[in-house]
Each structure stands twice: as structure tokens, then as C-alpha cells.
Design goal:
By secondary structure, the protein is α/β, with parallel strands linked by helices. The chain folds into two domains: about 260 residues, Alpha-Beta Barrel (TIM Barrel), CATH 3.20.20; about 100 residues, Sulfite Reductase Hemoprotein, domain 1. Helices cover about 35% and strands about 20% of the residues. It is built from twelve helices and 15 strands. An eight-stranded parallel beta barrel has the order 3-4-5-6-7-8-9-10, surrounded by six helices. A five-stranded mixed β-sheet has the order 11-12-13-14-15. A hairpin with a 3-residue loop joins strand 13 and strand 14. Helix 6 packs parallel to helix 7, helix 7 runs parallel beside helix 8 and helix 8 packs across helix 9. The longest helix is centred in the middle third of the chain and has 18 residues. The protein is globular, with a radius of gyration of 20 Å.
Length: about 400
């Protein structure tokens, strides 16, 4: 049996009922094996580093490799990278939907985020922009992923569902599916991601109830550092996959570039455990205390110190592990500001400075050599505010 993609035959598992879609030579959905994918963490224009990442993921057995493209320089780099790889490529359009026809001839899937479509060409409707992407995908036999993220919800849905953002995420995905249906495009899947496992479970269940035909890409975004990031991801997958929900998965871990293949091996291990009925127990009091959220790094990261910083934050905050506080460490200016809003303390990294936030309030921008001291001060103050005692250390 192919070790890369195990079909599920567990007697306790509900069958998946989604339609099958083609992503190049790969088929997902229905009774097809659950595909395991990951994303390059380097700047796409850095051909040597990104080429190395692709080889690492290929060697790890990735079914799909996602690469971010946000400029014409990125497009040129993608074309060169394609020459050296036969992998199934997915391209992430980031904030530039206009690049769709330029990248489509070189990839098998295009991922767009509805929350990023409003950035360019404000005189055009969202539907017009979606149709532009669909036409590029159709002409080049590409699949599409509609990727809805908690930290970058479409502003219209964010405003309409201010009291229930999860419902806004689901409705946004449902509405975009309807648009693609009306355009006669069927080779698409959907992802609904959050850094909270329980919200990932809830959002995907609600979506699957409304659109049981649409294949789902599962993942816990910004799951963070191992082992906590693995546990958060496992919680979501163990609840959803046996329920017949999930056709492709991505494990998002904050790890050094050379360890990116771990996302694939961890994903396969979780799938094998679920297939064999081995469900891991969650450690006692897991996430009842300190919760560190960290993104897995991607080509948007402007300073390679980000991954080291995430590791340093975990070590520095160990003294506060008993306090129920969430700290988010994000690697870029695209998702960082929005995806730190819900954290008690948030850090999002720029080229030379790290922006420190308390909820939605910005506390300042500090150098990489200053930020840990500033975070420690903010954490001490927050613990005193919430618990009436200054933390030790």
C-alpha cells in the first residue's frame, strides 16, 4: 500500500461524501486518500532557499507544495522553480489576485483568501475579481482553494457578523462557493482555519452541514511550536476526520526551515493513528494556562529571526505557564496585525522591528534585541492586572 496516502477503512469512521476534484495528477475528495501538504517558508525570490525547501518537502512525501506569490518577481521565481520540480504546486495569491493568469500555467491549484480581495482595484466588485481568478484557473486546468482565515476575514462579513465571527467565516465560504458554482467551476475546495482547535472543528462542521459536497482542506493556522502545535492540530483532526470531514490536511508548525518536512511526517502519523483507532489523550489541563500561538513561517516573513524569536518567547515565558494568557507571535505584516488582535499580547515581525500589542492596542515597535524585555514587562503588567500578583522571575 502507498505509504504517502492511506485510505480510511475504519469501522468507526463515517465515509466522506464530498465530490472528487482534480489537482493536476492528484485527486482529492470522496473516497480518495487524504492528501498531505505543506508550504515553503522562505521568500519565493530566494531561489536557492526556496528550491531547498521544495526538495525537503518532496523528500518528506508531500502530495502538494504551496508557494506564495505576491509580485511579478515572485512569478518569475516560480517559473524557474517549476523547471526543477515535478511536484504538484499550489500557489497562494496573497493580496494580489491580478497575478492569477501569470502563475496558472505553472501550478495545479490556486489559493485565494476572500479577505484579501478588497486590497486592489476597489472600483471592481468581489465577484469580478473572483471571476478573474476562475477564468485563469479554467483556462489552465487548475483547481482552486477558497481559503478563509480567522485573522483576515472579509471586511464586509467581519462587520456583519461582529458578534459571531465564526458564523461570518462560514457564510463567507458558503457565498464564495455559490459564486464559483454560478460560474460553472467545480474543481474547488475550501479551508476554514483558526488558531483555536475548537473553532476549527466548529467552523468545518457547520460548513460541511451546508455544503457536504465540497472537499475540505483542514488545518489549525498558527498552531505554533511542537509539541503544543502538534497537539492542537491532532485535536482538530481527530474530531473531524472520523466524522467524514477532511480531504486534504496541512500541519502548520513553527520550525526551522530545514525541519519543514516535519509537517508532512506529523500529518501522516496523525492520519495513521486515526486509521488505526489510536486517539491520543490530551494532556491534563492542556491550554488552561499559557497559550503561545505562532505562525509556521512563509515567504512573507521579512526577517529570518522570527522562528528563533518564537522559540525565545516560549523559553522566556515559561515562568507564566500557569496563567491563562494567550501570546501570539506572527511573522509578517500581512496577517500579523489582524491575527494578533484576539491575543492578550501579540508580536508581529517586520524587517528590523517587532510590533508589540496588547489586544488591539499597539504598545510600540522594538528591535529584535529589545523585544523580549519589552514583552516581559507587558506580561508582568498583564498578570498583575488579571491576577493581582506580579509574576516571579
Amino acid at each position: 500500500m502507498d505509504e504517502k496516502a492511506l485510505p480510511f477503512v475504519s469501522e468507526n469512521k463515517k465515509p466522506r461524501k464530498t465530490r472528487k476534484i482534480k489537482i493536476g495528477s492528484l485527486t482529492i475528495g470522496g473516497d480518495s486518500p487524504i492528501a498531505v501538504q505543506s508550504m515553503t517558508a522562505t521568500r519565493t525570490v530566494d531561489l536557492e532557499a526556496t528550491g531547498k525547501q521544495i526538495r525537503i518537502l518532496e523528500d518528506a512525501g508531500a502530495d502538494i507544495i504551496r508557494i506564495a506569490v505576491d509580485s511579478k518577481d515572485d512569478v518569475e521565481a516560480l517559473i524557474k522553480l517549476r523547471q526543477d520540480s515535478n511536484a504538484v504546486f499550489s500557489v497562494d495569491l496573497q493580496e494580489n489576485y491580478r497575478l492569477a493568469p501569470l502563475v496558472a500555467p505553472y501550478v495545479q491549484k490556486i489559493r485565494y483568501n476572500p479577505g484579501h480581495l478588497f486590497h486592489l482595484d476597489k472600483d471592481k466588485t468581489i465577484r469580478e475579481k473572483v471571476e478573474f481568478i476562475v477564468n485563469a484557473a479554467r483556462e489552465n486546468q487548475c483547481a482552486i482553494r477558497i481559503g478563509v482565515n480567522c485573522g483576515s476575514i472579509d471586511p464586509d462579513y467581519k462587520a456583519k457578523y461582529v458578534d459571531d465571527p465564526l458564523a461570518g467565516m462560514v457564510q463567507c465560504a458558503v457565498d464564495h462557493c455559490a459564486m464559483l458554482d454560478e460560474m460553472g467551476f467545480e474543481d474547488y475546495c475550501v479551508s476554514l482555519k483558526d488558531s483555536d482547535s475548537s473553532k476549527v472543528i466548529e467552523a468545518n462542521r457547520h460548513f460541511a452541514e451546508q455544503r457536504p459536497d465540497v472537499p475540505l482542506h483542514l488545518g489549525v493556522t498558527e498552531a505554533g511550536l511542537p509539541p503544543e502545535g502538534i497537539i492542537k492540530t491532532r485535536i482538530a483532526f481527530e474530531q473531524l476526520i472520523p466524522s467524514g470531514i477532511g480531504d486534504t490536511i496541512r500541519v502548520s508548525l513553527t520550525v526551522p526551515d530545514d525541519d519543514k518536512g516535519d509537517e508532512i511526517s506529523v500529518g501522516r502519523e496523525i492520519l495513521k493513528d486515526i486509521e488505526a483507532g489510536r486517539f491520543r489523550s490530551v494532556p491534563e489541563n492542556f491550554l488552561e494556562g499559557l497559550n503561545i500561538i505562532a505562525c509556521p513561517s512563509c515567504s512573507r516573513v521579512e526577517n529570518g529571526k522570527f522562528v528563533d524569536l518564537a522559540q525565545d518567547v516560549r523559553r522566556m515565558t515559561a515562568f507564566a505557564e500557569k496563567y491563562k494568557i494567550t501570546i501570539a507571535v506572527m511573522g509578517c505584516r500581512v496577517n500579523g496585525p489582524g491575527e494578533t488582535d484576539d491575543a492578550d499580547l501579540g508580536l508581529w515581525c517586520g524587517p528590523a522591528h517587532v510590533n508589540l500589542k496588547k489586544g488591539t492596542e499597539t504598545l510600540g515597535a522594538f528591535g529584535y534585541d529589545e523585544i523580549l524585555d519589552q514583552l516581559k514587562k507587558a506580561l508582568d503588567c498583564l498578570i498583575e492586572e488579571k491576577y493581582g500578583a506580579v509574576s516571579p522571575g
